[in-house]
Amino acid sequence: MSTGAVAALSLILLLALIFFGVHLSTSLMFTSVLSVFLFTGRFSTAMNVLSQSAWGAVRQYMFGVIPLFVLMGLLANLSGASQDLYDSASLLLKKVRGGVGIATVIANAIFAAITGVTVASAAVFTKIALPQMLRLKYNRKIALGTISGSAILGMLIPPSLLMIVYGSQADVSIGKLFVAAVMPGILMTIAFIIVILTVAHIKPDYIPEVEELTEYEKENFWKIVLRPWPIVLLIIISLGGIWCGFFTPTEAGGVGAFGAFLIVIFRKRFNRKEFWETLLSAGSTSGSVLILLVSASTYSKTLSMCGVINVLRDLVEGFSIPPIGIVLLFILILMVLGCILDSTSILLLTTPLMCPIMADLGYDLVWFGLVMIIAIETGMITPPFGMNVFTVKSSLYGMDGMEGITVNEIFAGSMWFLAAIIIVDLICIFIPQIVLFLPNAM
């Protein structure tokens, strides 16, 4: 069967399987085996490609970073870090209009440097920040949008699960990706803060006036503000160690997980049942991601072996548009896919197709990985998929006074932050040094 026919059939079959609800890993493996069989005419060759890809994928040292950073985040949450971060930021910003909303953004940014998972931040801060914002008479849509929107920092600020997935698929240094994400992460955090300040200015009825400090807060000001210092120190050690070359990302994950465990012990939060549940959760999350990576590795090798990448490269390069136009086209495709697929699935599907083309056009794949991830994350707050939005909605279950909140309200409040995400992505596209300055200085 010709290369063009195999390329067309494999992509159509893959999209059809996903559309009909077949799990992504199953879809990728089935499509890969069938494509190789159609291209070579030998079923044994197809099975050999599958087995060798699976064995080669799981043996890679860098994949150890996934369970270690996942465990680090879960242990940090067990220690009460999320509540401490929020209390500290909200107290520091209490005299600023919109301070509690800004505190939610900042706490999300710092918590993102521990968890690496967007939905974890959305679930945690729905419980912590939403009651406080509603008590202060924040507009309900803005309060909900602040939580679901700022939670996307979990996938942008390192250590990010998406960066690990992208690095493994694009054969790019995960350490460089982590360091490259620092500046865009800070820029995104500032953009979200500007969104809240802008809403406070143009819609003053949406965000209340500042609240005075209570006597308890005055007496314990520095105690509350400095309470998160162990978590901040752990972030500096693990990520700073990567930047300075002391640790590989995998070693940094091990140091971070052990440090988070020590914080749990130090704060007397250790409980056998909860600790066991944390280990099971880390294993479950890591296992599902690793299975996807194995199937994606098979898919990537199949595309290369059957010449699918070459067909797509010739097709794209045949367009009479400049290279930056191709970048913007890819970003638009990623945003559209974000409306119907989850972030990891999009990255696994598109990285093997887009990265070879970007490399041929002379673009840095570290830079492209970051702008890809930012674009993909728009899907976390856009309908109909909107994983962050549905996470916030599900986290409302059992909370007093939260009856009647609809998914549409959360989507509406998130649109302010969607605009900020798109603007930041465009800034990173047209000013690539924002992404590349730190990794180039390593």
Automatic annotation (TrEMBL):
A single cellular component GO annotation: plasma membrane
Pfam families: DctM (PF06808)
TM region(s), chain numbering: 6-39, 60-80, 100-130, 142-166, 178-200, 221-240, 246-266, 278-299, 319-349, 361-381, 416-438
Domain spans labelled TRAP C4-dicarboxylate transport system permease DctM subunit: 11-434
Signal peptide stretch: none
Keyword annotations from UniProtKB, A to Z: Cell inner membrane, Cell membrane, Membrane, Transmembrane, Transmembrane helix
Localisation per UniProt entry: Cell inner membrane
UniProt-listed InterPro entries: DctM, TRAP_DctM
Membrane topology, record value: Multi-pass membrane protein
Record PANTHER family: C4-DICARBOXYLATE TRAP TRANSPORTER LARGE PERMEASE PROTEIN DCTM (PTHR33362:SF5), SIALIC ACID TRAP TRANSPORTER PERMEASE PROTEIN SIAT-RELATED (PTHR33362)
Protein name: TRAP transporter large permease
